[in-house]
Amino acid sequence: MELLYQRDIYGQTLVELGKENKNIVVLDCDLSSSTRTALFARAFPERFFNFGVAEQNMMATAGGLASCGKIVFASTFAIFASGRAWDQVRNTISYNNFNVRIVATHAGVTVGEDGASHQAIADMAIMRAIPNMTVVVPCDGPETRDVIKAAVEYSGPMYIRLGRSKVQTIENKGKFKIGLSYCLKEGDDITLVACGIMVKEALEAAEELKKENINASVLNVHTIKPLDEETILKFARKTNRFVVCEEHLVAGGLASAIAEFLSETYPIKIARIGIRNHFGQSGSPQDLLRVYNLTSSDILKEAKKLIGR
Amino acid sequence: MSEKYPPELIKDLERKAKKVRCLIVSMIANAGSGHPGGSLSSSDLVVALFFARLKHDPKNPKWPERDRFHLSKGHCCPLLYAVLAEDGYFKVDELLTLRKLGSILQGHPDRRTPGIEAASGSLGQGLSVSLGMALAGKIDKIPYRVYCLMGDGETQEGNIWEAAMAASHYKCDNICAMLDYNGFQIDGKTKDVMNIDPVADKWRAFGWHTIEIDGHDMRQILAAYDEADSVKGKPTIIIANTIKGKGVSLMENVCDFHGRAPNAEETKKALEELK
After folding, report:
1. Which of B117, B125, B133 sits opposite A91 (nearest CB)?
2. How far is A85 from chain B (nearest CA, A)?
3. A55 an active-site residue?
4. Could you say which of A16, A20, A46, A55 is catalytic?
5. Do β-strands A3-5 and A24-28 pair in parallel, antiparallel, or remain unpaired?
6. Mutation target vs B (from A50, A92, A98, A99; most B CBs, 10 A cutoff)
């Protein structure tokens, strides 16, 4: 069982891509050792800029670089990328439709011990509400590599959300394409929809459900925006029940995006696994996932409730 | 001095500035809203830049080697639109579509306008955008220059000082910032609302080369651009002492005209004065 840091893969992939593509420029705000952009900085010092603790400047400068044709990867922790520099992201990056890839690490409560001030739990909602912005949440190491590679060719601004902790590699994923979700497991009774680290939890819940003769589909919706409406609709019709799982507030993220779409097209019962209306706290990632009901057993419970068992 | 800046050039720039001021007043009056005060105070700076210094091609706005101009104080876009139209980026007639539905001339700068590098309007971000352009030029080893016009009230934004620190850190001598120091902002005199003085000391402390001029004297303006060109290893800021509403008596140093259009009678008077 392979365990990888998404941010290790991010840094390594940047170096790989930087060799082929001289247009790639990488920016960071004093967190390059944590976000792993330091790997790129070592390999291509002339195309790396550290802005110190100044996220607003980094985001607006990223826009200026992109206006000159650069493909810019700008990294910091998710809490700062989505909060501290939001106006710069909105008005300079997204309004101009510039090719800036905001790769935010340390997202969600699994930041752990640093506590609530550092736990981005609304970043997907914040970024999803900006026109032009694409939002992607890869589920493991290899998918991180896929999205970073795809981001080089992609047009327009992107927010890519990575975690802090090591994550287990999910086997037998489909071919990665931004905007296309894929089915990891087919079943007719219910669909477990997930992104990021919750994909693994959803797969484990599906295994448990099987023991009770409930056949669940598992969908990895790594692209929150634009939403893969075709696949969502197909599975809504097929199973009529969704449990949507995300390491994020239940408001504004993946569950919201899916509920918004289905309420207009094919309303079904949806249960939401996510953080309710409160801040996080210090603790180990595993403890926090348990406290905020973000584990496979929570998914299992909701799924059974939805089915009436 | 007189040889360096021939009287004909100065006269020509002054004529152009007057024409541009006429266009600013007309287009804002026609739109019924907009920001005349700061557009008029920085007219001379921008006219001198576009018609005597900026290396650019209105027929090829995306020419990679062009000098960049970024209007950080985006609300003064009527000035930029007038200059771009006069320079041939689009027809002068377009100016009458300012702020109207579907126009290429939005209420604040937008990339749909030929010649506009990046949107602005939310204050304080333009120096960072210019820094990005300057860093791109250094990476690509293209010797273009980046000019950034800021308002004085705008420098109350923290983002400006983040950018000031970084431009100096990265030794961006290809940046020339201009500060339109007209001393007024929406709520009153800058020194009463939130004092920015001693402004030159602040920029020097951040590692910038500073030049203080009368922002309505074409010779001083051209000399400042030339001096900025010659500075190595650090960015330059031209602190231009200006008069808000310059050129239109009824608007000069009148705070109210920061963000209001002249009525019919005021417009008539203003245009007569600018004839």
Report:
1. B125
2. 10
3. yes
4. A55
5. unpaired
6. A92
**B136, A95: Cβ pair inside 8 Å?**
no
Question: Token pair 């690509």 is at which residue?
Answer: B140
Regions in chain B scoring below 70 on pLDDT = 1-3
In chain A, which residues have their Cβ closer than 8 Å to the Cβ of B165? 52, 54, 57
Tracing tokens 């650069």 back to the chain, one arrives at A70
Q: Identify the residue whose tokens are 């992107």.
A: A158
Looking at residue A174, what is its pLDDT? 80
The amino acid present at B135, given as its one-letter code, is L
Give A92's contacts in chain B (Cβ within 8 Å).
Answer: 118-119, 122, 125, 128-129
The overall average pLDDT reported for chain A is 97
| Residue A300 structure tokens | 């299992």
Q: How far away is chain B from the Cα of A258, in angstroms, using its nearest Cα?
A: 32
Task: Tell the residue number behind the tokens 């309420």, with chain if given.
Answer: A263
d(CA A246, CA A254): 7
Low-confidence ranges of chain A (pLDDT < 70): none
Q: How much is the pLDDT for B1?
A: 47
Question: What pLDDT, on a 0 to 100 scale, did the predictor assign at position B4?
Answer: 86
**C-beta atoms of B165 and A68 within 8 A:** no
Asked whether the whole model's pTM tops 0.80, one would answer yes
**Any residues with CB less than 8 A from the CB of B268 and at least 6 apart, and which?**
none
Rounded Cα distance between B109 and B215, Å, is: 23
DSSP A253: S
Interface of chain A toward chain B, CB-CB under 8 angstroms: 25, 46-47, 49, 51-52, 54, 56-57, 59-70, 87-88, 91-92, 95-98
Q: Which residue has the tokens 């990679």?
A: B64
Phi, psi values for residue B175, rounded to 5°: -105, 130
Query: DSSP E strands: which ranges in chain B?
Result: 68-71, 146-151, 175-181, 184-185, 188-189, 209-214, 236-241
Q: How many CB atoms lie within 10 A of CB B172?
A: 24
Yes or no: say if A142 and A9 are a contact pair by the CB < 8 Å rule: yes
- Looking at residue B192, its amino acid is D
- Cβ atoms of A118 and A111 closer than 8 Å: yes
Query: If you search the block for the tokens 């100016």, which residue do you land on?
Result: B95
Q: At what angle do helices B218-230 and B7-31 cross, to 10 degrees?
A: 100
Phi/psi of residue B143, nearest 5 degrees: -85, 35
pLDDT reported for residue B74: 98
Q: Give the pLDDT confidence score for residue B2 in this predicted structure.
A: 47
